[in-house]
Design goal:
single chain; globular; alpha/beta; about 400 residues; two-stranded antiparallel sheet; eleven-stranded mixed β-sheet
C-alpha cells in the first residue's frame, strides 16, 4: 500500500532503545524524565575547562554492554548506539537471523563522530609520534561507521548511511528512514542518533562561543529550558534508536506499533552559522512542512517536544514559532533539563520521549524551571507529569548552520 493524497504514509514505530545520562535503557530514562531528575554533575573529562559539568552517562560501560572482544574496536558513541539498537530490536521482536537483510536499512546520525577516539589518538600523535596512532582510528571515529558497525552486526544489507545536520542530525535521520520505507526500498529501518563528545576540545569550544551554561555554583539546575534565568545549554551524551517499519510488514508479523511517524519537514535558515533566524522563519517552514506531510492541521497537535536547549535565543524563537503556528493549546516540554543537550543524538532522544508520551498519554515536566519566562506564549509543562489525551505530537530539532527538522507522530 502506498501513500495517497488522502492517506499519508505512516511508518510504524515498533521498538526503541536508549542510553542516556538518566539511564541505560528506555524504561530508566523515561522514569527519570517523568520525575524531572537532573543528571548534570561535574565530570573529570572537563576538569580545568571553563565549564566543568555535563550530563554524562557514567553508568555506561561498553565492555559490560557488548563484551570486551567487540567494544575495544568501537568508539564510545558507537558502543552506545549498538546497545540502544539491541534494546530496540528486542523490543520490536525482530530476529535478524530470520529477516531479509536486503530489505533492512540503517540510518544513524552523529553531529561530530567519534570525538573521544579522535582526541585520544591526536594526543598520542603529539606525545609519542605517528607510530603510536591506532590503525583503527578511522573505522572507529569516521561519521558513517556507527551505521556501518550496526549493519555488520545484524546483517542489514539495505541502504546504510549517516546524517549530520548538527543538533538536528537524528531527526533528519528519522525523516530519511521514513522516506526509505515510503519508497518501498526497505521493510525495516534502524534509525536514530548517537553522540559521545564530552571531551576537553568540544567542551572548551562550546564554552568559548558562549553556548554553555556557566551556572557552576549549582550545576544540577544549569539546564533550565524556558526559565527566565536560562543562560545556556549543558553538554550531554547518549544514543537513541528507533525501529521503523512499513505498516503492512509490522502487521504481517503481528507487531503492535507504539506510534506512527507520520510526517517530516526540513528547511535551512540560510543565515547565521550559530544563531537561529530571529523570526524563526526556517523553523516555521519545517514545522508547517511536517504537518502537511502528516495531513495534520495545527489544531490537531496536542503536544510539542521542544528543542528547548536552555539558551536565551533558541527558547525565545522556538516559543514564538510554536505559538505562531500551533497557538497556545499544545502541552510543551523539553527533556534537556534531564538529559542535557546530546547534539546529534538529541532529536532521537526526543523522538523516543514523544512516542512514549503518546503511548502512555502523559507529558513529562520540563526540569529545573524555577520561574517560567513570562515572555513565552506557550503552555510549558512544569513541576510534574501532565496526563493528557493525545492523538498527535511533534518534535522539533534546530541546529547550527540553520538546520531545521521536525517530525510528527500520531498515536497507535
Amino acid at each position: 500500500m502506498t501513500a495517497t493524497a488522502d492517506r499519508p504514509f505512516r511508518a510504524a514505530v515498533t521498538g526503541f532503545g536508549m542510553v542516556t545520562a538518566a539511564g541505560l535503557d528506555a524504561t530508566a530514562t523515561w522514569e527519570a524524565l517523568l520525575s524531572g531528575r537532573s543528571t548534570t554533575r561535574r565530570v573529570t573529562e572537563l576538569a580545568g575547562m571553563p565549564v566543568d559539568f555535563a550530563c554524562k552517562a557514567d553508568q555506561f560501560d561498553g565492555d559490560a554492554a557488548l563484551g570486551r572482544r567487540i567494544a575495544w574496536r568501537l568508539d564510545r558513541s558507537t558502543q552506545m548506539a549498538m546497545t540502544a539498537t539491541a534494546e530496540a530490536l528486542e523490543q520490536a521482536g525482530l530476529d535478524p537471523e530470520t529477516w531479509d537483510g536486503a530489505r533492512v536499512g540503517v540510518v544513524l546520525a552523529t553531529a561530530l563522530g567519534g570525538m573521544t577516539t579522535w582526541e585520544r589518538e591526536y594526543g598520542r600523535l603529539r606525545e609519542l609520534g605517528p607510530g603510536a596512532v591506532s590503525p583503527l582510528l578511522i573505522p572507529m571515529a569516521a561519521v558513517n561507521m556507527t551505521a556501518g558497525h550496526v549493519a555488520s552486526a545484524y546483517g542489514a544489507k539495505g541502504p546504510n548511511f549517516a546524517t549530520a545536520t548538527a543538533c538536528a542530525s537524528s531527526t533528519t535521520a528519522l525523516g530519511a528512514a521514513r522516506d526509505l520505507l515510503r519508497a518501498d526500498l526497505c521493510d525495516v529501518v534502524i534509525a536514530g542518533g548517537t553522540e559521545a563528545a564530552i571531551t576537553p576540545l568540544i567542551g572548551a569550544s562550546f564554552a568559548k562561543m558562549g553556548a554553555l551554561s556557566t551556572r557552576s555554583g549549582d550545576p544540577a539546575t544549569a539546564s533550565r529550558p524556558f526559565d527566565a534565568a536560562r543562560d545556556g545549554f549543558v553538554l550531554g551524551e547518549g544514543a537513541s534508536v528507533l525501529v521503523l517499519e512499513r505498516p503492512e510488514h509490522a502487521r504481517a508479523r503481528g507487531a503492535r506499533p507504539y506510534a506512527f511517524l507520520s510526517g517530516y519537514g526540513a528547511s535551512a535558515d540560510a543565515g547565521h552559522s550559530t544563531r537561529p533566524d530571529p523570526e524563526g522563519l526556517g523553523a516555521e517552514a519545517a514545522l508547517r512542512a511536517a504537518l502537511t506531510d502528516a495531513d495534520l492541521a495545527p489544531e490537531d497537535v496536542d503536544h510539542v517536544n521542544a528543542h528547548g536547549t536552555s539558551t536565551p535565543l533558541n527558547d525565545a524563537v522556538e516559543s514564538q514559532v510554536t505559538h505562531r503556528v500551533l497557538g497556545d493549546r499544545p502541552a510543551v516540554t523539553s527533556i534537556k533539563g534531564v538529559t542535557g543537550h546530546c547534539l546529534g543524538a538529541a532529536g532521537a532522544h526526543e523522538a523516543v520521549a514523544t512516542v512514549l508520551s503518546l503511548h502512555h498519554q502523559v507529558v513529562p515536566p520540563t526540569a529545573n524551571v524555577q520561574e517560567l519566562d513570562p515572555g513565552l506564549q506557550v503552555d510549558v509543562v512544569t513541576d510534574k507529569p501532565r496526563p493528557l489525551l493525545m492523538a498527535s505530537a511533534v518534535s522539533h530539532s534546530f541546529g547550527f548552520g540553520g538546520q531545521n527538522a521536525v517530525v510528527a507522530f500520531t498515536s497507535a
